[in-house]
Amino acid sequence: MHKKHIDLLIRRYTENILPKNIQYKFRQWLINSDNVEDKNASLENIWNNINAEADESTIRDLELLHQKMNAGHRIKRINYSYIVRIAAMIMIPILCSYLTYFLTQKYSVKNVNMVECFVPYGEKKLIVLPDSSEVWVNSGSIIIYPEKFVGDTRTIYLNGEANFSVTKNPDKRFIVSTNNLNIEALGTIFNVRAYLDLPKITATLEEGKIKVETKTGPVQSMILKPNEQIIYDNKTQYLSKQIVDAKRVAMWKDGYLIFQEASFGDILHAIEKRYDVVIHFDAGKYEGRTFTVRFSPEETLPETLDILKEIIRDFNYKIKSNTIYIY
Fold first, then answer.
1. Res. 286: pLDDT tops 70
2. Which of 272, 283, 263 is nearest to 305 (CA)?
3. Distances from the Cα of 159 to the Cα of 102, 178, 304, 326, angstroms
């Protein structure tokens, strides 16, 4: 392919103006080893003309993807430095592309297109799956699922937070696959919070029954009853269970943010995604402290921060455009 055509194709993809059928073919083309030098040159040219930086979270997410793509599955080696250079510019499209590539290759999904859905910060979205199950997807989340379910399982891939209302089908297991956990359900309502940039994964059961099983380290599994929540620590690989109010956990669907004995980092993570902002703070200052607080849907960003100021001693903030500095 001529370099001029490569440059035009990549630019149109990053601007999200390619038809869906062409986008799928583009992703397959992007990850193969053909025309690598021309692809690099084109991406570098675009990179040099934008204002973006790949932060630690971006690189960490890509490292996790890279590990997964090589775990137990032989694929062509991918130029990692090449991916990192373009990550900040087209992180979400590329993340979806590589996830879809990995899933379709690893699980041999033949003749079935994978549907990719990213929900931007500040938004949430209701998705109806091919089996009529309903999924509310929270801001900053990626969910990937087949266009139609084949075989004896219904597998959904999630990075972020989603609330599932599952249509009963005893002949087809319903599985939500996250970075380190599989959550299996039959005719149930449950919530999963599994952002790659958070240290813990939680699964909370509202109705029915779910089975949670670890994917890394020693195999651990638990069966949850309504109003039970499992917590998986990604670092220690420890799985624990506690009693919660499951309906309160899922109230983010209605615009509420409710925290009970939550870490300061968890609270700010949710605020960043709700208001599409970046928050800078001294993590050490709040380490080991937990907070219980509730934010309503109609509250503005300043009002939300003022509530934190009321309940947290020595809390001050400054808003500059879409960046918040806490001191």
1. yes
2. 272
3. 14, 6, 26, 27
CA 46 – CA 34 distance, rounded (Å): 19
Helix (H, G, I), strand (E, B) or coil at 310: helix
Q: Which has the higher per-residue pLDDT, 268 or 18?
A: 268
- Give exposure, 149-185, as e/b (b: 16+ Cβ within 10 Å): beeeebbbbbbbbbbbbbeebeebebbbbbbbbbbbb
Host H or E run for residue 325: strand 323-326
Closest to 228 in 3D by CA, of 262, 188, 174:
188
Rounded to two decimals, the pTM is 0.70
- With beta carbons less than 8 A apart as the criterion, state whether 165 and 189 touch: yes
> Which tokens sit at 205?
């059961």
Nearest to 91 by CA among 134, 40, 55, 37: 55
Q: Which domains does the chain have, with CATH numbers?
A: 1-106 (no CATH), 112-243 (2.60.120.1440), 255-326 (3.55.50.30)
pLDDT over threshold 60, residue 258? yes
pLDDT, tens digit, 9 for 90 and up, residues 92-110: 555 555 555 555 554 445 5
Which candidate, 110, 143, 113, 137, places its Cα nearest to that of 125?
A: 137
126 - beta bridge partners? Answer: 136
Residue 193 pLDDT greater than 60, yes or no = yes
Task: Give the residue from 19, 159, 31 showing the smallest Cα distance to 105.
Answer: 31
